[in-house]
Amino acid sequence: MTIRKLQLDDFLPYRLSITSNLVSDAIAQAYARLFALTVPEWRLIAVIAESDGITQQQLCQRTRMDKVTVSRATIALSNRGLVRRMPNPADGRSQLLSLSEEGRELYAHVVPEALALETRIFGQLGNEQIAQFTELLDHISAAAEKLIDARAP
Predict the structure, then answer these.
(1) Quick one: three-class SS letters along the chain?
(2) How far apart are CA 139 and CA 153, in angstroms?
(3) What CATH number should be reported for the domain holding residue 99?
(4) Pick from 47, 53, 112, 139: most CB atoms within 10 A?
């Protein structure tokens, strides 16, 4: 039996990871420079803004970030006064997170920059290409989730 040789530059999971890292790095530089935010902090702000009153566990699920990253980002955002913690009436062991007034103001300033960055990165693609790319990402995500679920204990 002949084993196919792996060419890393042609291996789609590798290329997807590299591309994702490049996009994240470009965004991270802008957010750090303009708003003193890390990418995990920005992701949490965006998700909290969309889902006011969310637990850290739910943030982990929505962002696919690990517990430690979410915890550190939440602490940093709380220390900056951008996120408020409230008791969770449904589960006394967790807290519900929401944006403070300062957090909502920061979110309002970050959104236009985020959309401008998206345009700078993806602006050379047409609407049809964006729609196809989005559909492909949905298919890739679903396939990866199936693999993860199949291996879950």
Answers:
(1) CCCCCCCHHHCHHHHHHHHHHHHHHHHHHHHHHHHCCCHHHHHHHHHHHHCCCECHHHHHHHHCCCHHHHHHHHHHHHHCCCEEEEECCCCCCCEEEEECHHHHHHHHHHHHHHHHHHHHHHCCCCHHHHHHHHHHHHHHHHHHHHHHHHHCC
(2) 24
(3) 1.10.10.10
(4) 47
153 has pLDDT over 70: no
Q: What is the pLDDT of residues 35-45, one digit of tens each?
A: 999 989 999 99
Number of structural domains the chain divides into: 2
Range of the domain at 32: 26-110
Report pLDDT digits (tens) over 50-99.
Answer: 987 999 999 999 999 999 999 999 999 999 999 999 988 888 788 999 99
| Contacts within 8 Å (CB) and 24+ apart, 62-65 | 65/40
Q: Quick check: pTM over 0.85?
A: no
Are 96 and 86 a contacting pair, CB within 8 Å? yes
Give 82's Cβ-side CA count (13 Å radius): 22
